[in-house]
Amino acid sequence: MLTMYDARGTVLPAGFEGRGLPSGVVLIDLLRPDPAEIAYVQRVTGLTLPTSQRMSEVEVSSRLAMQRKTLQVTSPIVYRTDAVAVNTSPVGFMLSEKLLITLRFVDLKSFDDFLAQKPFRVADPAQAAIELFLGLLETIVDRMADAMEQIGADLDRVSRGIFRPETGVHATDKPTVIERRLNRALRTIGQNGDHTSHARDSLLGLGRLIAYVGTHTGERLPDGLKARLETLKQDVGSLNDYEGRLSDKVQFLLDSTLGFINIEQNRLFKLLTIASVMGVPPTFVVGLYGMNFKNMPEVDWSYGYQFGWAMILVSILIPGIWLKRKGWF
């Protein structure tokens, strides 16, 4: 889909038969473009749009380039594929003095939010393209910051659920309760760890993109736009630091949760061992009195049956008391 905007955010008609762009176009947004749309943009701008395969390459030379005095930069942008899963998709920006072209292959909420602002906040129509470019980047970074704050809140909730005395894992809880709690924590940690990994890729790409744009446009930018670009650079740097802290916390909680799982497994094995040890003496007693020899005096006793039961109970109690005093349970 091809959509054209002027400096105020008005959608302009896109006629593919024309030889030039409609008057006043400063932003061309290409979302999953078909071959006819790509051919039209390349014809009227004289630029060669990158393919999705080239945009997905990790080499810096493939993501940051200059084409006919037009900056051609690409960065992976993180997005949600459903309620919990996330992924990244490459987004391309082609920036000249008068025109900004965006190329993407998935719906991005940050783009929808920015393009829904009517009118666009453009202070200087002569700098509309770079202002829209910076506005898009600011919206993307803001949404990433919100998402990472949510990750931090989720990890804090997992931490409270594991370690706090009133809500944490207790040896007195039923094994099924502990298992459900630890499985839920492990799933949450894994989901947020995956989200953090994708956010790291996006931040790395955005950091390189912003530095490249600053190097090639800094001299002709007014002070206000230079300040916005520098602020963006600092925001991405701070998010990188925050992402590093989140990654450390994900690893810490993952290790802690796996440790609790090992402790719970050891506790269950210990209980089975205790049951086995306490079951050996009564098994011996039952086997002894099940041998049916004629000279067994207890067979003729009036209380022989009760005596046998007493022997079984005593044989259970003695190892139980001994194991208790040794601190096994």
Quick summary of this structure?
By secondary structure, the protein is of the alpha+beta class. The chain contains eight helices and seven strands, in the order E-E-E-H-H-H-E-E-E-E-H-H-H-H-H. The protein has two domains: 2-266, 2-Layer Sandwich (Beta Polymerase, domain 2), CATH 3.30.460; 271-325, no CATH class.
What is the domain total for the residues?
2
Number of strands: 7
**CATH secondary-structure class of the largest domain:** Alpha Beta
Query: Radius of gyration over alpha carbons?
Result: 34 Å
Helix-strand layout with pairing:
Elements: E1 2-5, E2 11-12, E3 27-31, H1 35-45, H2 52-55, H3 60-63, E4 64-67, E5 70-80, E6 86-95, E7 100-104, H4 109-115, H5 128-163, H6 175-217, H7 223-288, H8 304-325
Parallel strand pairs: 3-7
Antiparallel strand pairs: 1-2, 1-3, 4-5, 5-6, 6-7
Summarize the structure in words:
There is one protein chain. This protein has 329 residues and is an alpha+beta fold. It folds into 2 domains: 2-266, 2-Layer Sandwich (Beta Polymerase, domain 2); 271-325, no CATH class. The chain has 8 helices and 7 strands, in the order βββαααββββααααα. It has helices at 35-45, 52-55, 60-63, 109-115, 128-163, 175-217, 223-288, 304-325; strands at 2-5, 11-12, 27-31, 64-67, 70-80, 86-95, 100-104. It has a 7-stranded mixed beta sheet with strand order 2-1-3-7-6-5-4. α5 runs parallel beside α7. The mean pLDDT is 83.
